[in-house]
Design a protein that fits this description.
InterPro entries: ArsR-like_HTH, HTH_ArsR_DNA-bd_dom, Metal_resp_trans_reg, Rhodanese-like_dom, Rhodanese-like_dom_sf, Thiosulphate_STrfase_CS, WH-like_DNA-bd_sf, WH_DNA-bd_sf. This is ArsR family transcriptional regulator. Keywords: DNA-binding, Transcription, Transcription regulation. It is a single chain. The protein is of the alpha/beta class. The protein folds into two domains: about 80 residues, Winged helix-like DNA-binding domain superfamily/Winged helix DNA-binding domain (Arc Repressor Mutant, subunit A), CATH 1.10.10.10; about 100 residues, Rhodanese-like domain (Oxidized Rhodanese, domain 1, 3-Layer(aba) Sandwich). It has ten helices and eight strands. β5, α8 and β6 form a beta-alpha-beta unit. The protein is globular, with a radius of gyration of 19 Å.
């Protein structure tokens, strides 16, 4: 029989990770960091947080060993501590979706239009088939820094907020497959709605960059 106090200490150490994950905003920060390294200011702005609040959340994640930092000059950039953290985040989502009905309700309310209409999607294998056959243009609608950190090879980068003014850059006679951060990212949904409203043939990748990386698919990076 082992020492009960030592056993309790062991499980308390494991619980540090669970406690760090016990915040929706910290999960959102992990979601953003799964796309690539970011500064505190960038993370705060994208997640709708004040700098002090974002720093506190990042400190908690760092103390739990989930994120790490790199300093370049006066700028500190945060990154996931390892690919296993991205896998943990994805598995947490999967378990929550499998066992909590409220997750699907919340996801549907967030990703679909008010009338409940969803956008057409295709899987990873079908995207590759259509792209390789020249039947589709792959469109990355994430912000430019995320595209630079890693994207599907051959993808065209047009952030969602620039898409209305840059439609002419996309061929009118080829289907467009849009993708963004992951299965819970709304950007690709909104891109497909915008494109179809302008008469373009468009679908979205069912998942996103997080799942693409975890599936060990090829990734191109243009960041320095």
């Amino acid at each position: 029989m082992g020492d009960a106090l030592l056993k309790a200490e062991l499980f308390e150490q494991l619980a540090r990770v669970g406690k760090a994950l016990g915040s929706g905003k910290r999960l959102e920060l992990l979601d953003l960091l799964s796309q690539g390294p970011r500064s505190v200011a960038d993370l705060a702005a994208t997640a709708g947080l004040g700098l002090t609040t974002a720093s506190m959340h990042l400190k908690t994640l760092r103390e739990a060993g989930l994120v790490a930092t790199t300093r370049k000059g006066t700028t500190i950039r945060y990154r996931l501590a390892g690919e296993d953290v991205a896998a943990l985040f994805a598995q947490l989502r999967a378990v929550a979706a499998a066992h909590l009905a409220d997750v699907d309700v919340a996801r549907t309310r967030y990703l679909r239009t008010q009338d409940g209409e969803d956008t057409e999607q295709i899987g990873r294998d079908e995207l590759l088939r259509r792209a390789q056959a020249g039947e589709a243009v792959v469109l990355d609608v994430r912000p430019v820094p995320e595209f630079a950190a890693g994207h599907i090879p051959g993808a065209v980068s047009i952030p969602l907020d620039e898409l209305p003014d840059r439609l002419s850059e996309l061929p009118a006679d080829v289907e467009i497959v849009a993708y963004c951060r992951g299965a819970y990212c709304v950007l690709a949904h909104d891109a497909v709605r915008l494109l179809t409203a302008h008469g373009r043939r468009a679908v979205r990748l069912a998942e996103g960059m997080l799942e693409w990386r975890l599936a060990n698919q090829p990734v191109t990076a243009t960041a320095s």
